[in-house]
Design brief:
With 268 residues, the protein is an alpha/beta fold. The protein has ten helices and nine strands. It is globular, with a radius of gyration of 18 Å.
């Protein structure tokens, strides 16, 4: 059933699907408000002046459209996002030097991450939590692996992380979701439990950490930017705080585009 739906969505006119996704967002907000109250609470605590309805409906509509575009990309390998700052990472990979990357749940992260890896040709490993639905998880995993991504589990993967870096791969971490065994570092002024793994990997490996973010510029059009390497201290707590500050800056730029439906600030 899921594969059949994916086949149809990958071939549907993209403009029509954009309208359908906006309708689905309205249905979510009005009739099936799964996590709506949580999303409203999160948004209003950070951006009290923003109207939650339009902001969160746009968030959900663009999230859904991003996965339609991912299915189309898996079939056609188009469209590609516009890239900024990737040449330095390509050069490191060509020289056999590994790079750590801080990514986040902004814009169409699955589509842009996969498309960027395909476009640059840089061998890429990503630490990613699979979707909770088994059928959806299997489909997303197949798409990611067909694009050449090496998928690593959120726990128990650090040995492979160091091996991948020694092979000249890019290793991507997502630190903008709650990690119950993590550090309580500030995120928009409130303690948010965050995995220390990226800071630990940077300290042990000596590899630079670059921040990367993606955003939508229209239906079927996206942009991905890689920032210069972070100036890290080697202190796990301080460097993890630096990573969260990067997220804060990106979310402030486009508040509608972050995943507000996640319970980021809940204590373990």
């Amino acid at each position: 059933m899921i594969k059949a739906a994916a086949w149809l969505l990958a071939r549907a006119p993209l403009g029509m699907m954009a309208a359908v996704c906006r309708l689905l967002a309205w249905v979510w907000w009005t009739l099936v408000p799964v996590r709506r109250d949580l999303a409203v609470q999160n948004l209003q605590r950070v951006f009290p002046a923003l109207p939650p309805g339009p902001t969160l409906r746009r968030c959900v509509a663009e999230l859904a459209l991003g996965y339609v575009e991912l299915l189309r990309f898996d079939r056609t390998r188009a469209p590609m996002p516009a890239l900024e700052g990737a040449d330095w990472i390509r050069a490191r990979a060509a020289a056999g030097q590994g790079t750590l990357m801080l990514a986040g749940h902004g814009g169409s992260w699955d589509l842009c991450g996969l498309a960027t890896a395909v476009q640059t040709g840089v061998p890429t490993s990503v630490i990613a939590k699979p979707p909770s639905h088994p059928g959806v998880a299997a489909l997303v995993r197949q798409i990611r692996e067909r694009g050449g991504l090496e998928l690593l589990a959120p726990s128990g993967s650090m040995t492979r992380v160091y091996e991948a870096l020694s092979e000249g791969r890019v290793v991507i971490f997502f630190l903008d979701q709650r990690h119950n065994a993590g550090l309580p570092v500030p995120f928009f002024g409130r303690p948010a439990w965050t995995a220390p793994s990226l800071a630990a990997a940077a300290r042990r490996s000596g590899c630079p950490v670059v921040g990367v973010w993606q955003w939508r510029e229209g239906v079927g059009r996206h942009r991905v930017r890689a920032w210069p390497p972070f100036a890290l201290t080697g202190d796990i707590d301080q460097d993890t705080r630096t990573f969260q500050a990067f997220y804060e800056d990106r979310v402030r730029e486009r508040p509608h585009a972050w995943l507000w439906l996640h319970d980021r600030w809940r204590s373990p």
